[in-house]
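TEACHING EXERCISE
Course module: macromolecular assemblies
Task: Read the component lines below, then compare them to the predicted structure of the full complex.
Student: A.B.
Group: 4
Components provided:
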Amino acid sequence: DADVTQTPRNRITKTGKRIMLECSQTKGHDRMYWYRQDPGLGLRLIYYSFDVKDINKGEISDGYSVSRQAQAKFSLSLESAIPNQTALYFCATSSAGGTYQETQYFGPGTRLLVL
Amino acid sequence: GESVGLHLPTLSVQEGDNSIINCAYSNSASDYFIWYKQESGKGPQFIIDIRSNMDKRQGQRVTVLLNKTVKHLSLQIAATQPGDSAVYFCAENIGGGDKIIFGKGTRLHILP
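Instructor-supplied answer key:
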């Protein structure tokens, strides 16, 4: 069974629609992340959460919001989707870092197309 | 200037040969580095990491080398196999901070 799952795996929506991408993990990690991946641009951090009460903006948070419903669940919302939010979205988790950041474990991704 | 576009750098390697994938970083405060492998249709998968107090670390068929003087990181894959075909990302963490910064990736193509 996958440790980090994302739903849906693929989604097509229209401009202006609100959509939610969900992420669940069974690794028992405190830290969760949302990234987007665009061709040739690598991974860019949208939001991250170090525990249920902690939410932080990443590099490209505009147009997105998140909710950490539980230690195991972290959802990403697009309040009003626009075409340039078409991308591959990844959720990731890591354990608490201590002195150093710990390795991140990624879900399988959600492919989003905004028409 | 920085090249931004749809085309990743590509490394083509004969099956059985060794592969060397390079990565340059710019922040001298970066102290933790990771290599990820991303196969088509999948999320990035951890391969190996290295702390800045080391200059070499070995795993199973992989070796990461860190040269802090020139801010260069490399991933060496021994006896490259068809299953090694993927995009490889280096990532860095700056000074024990909250975030990991990912590079743009290199596509490894295995020639039969």
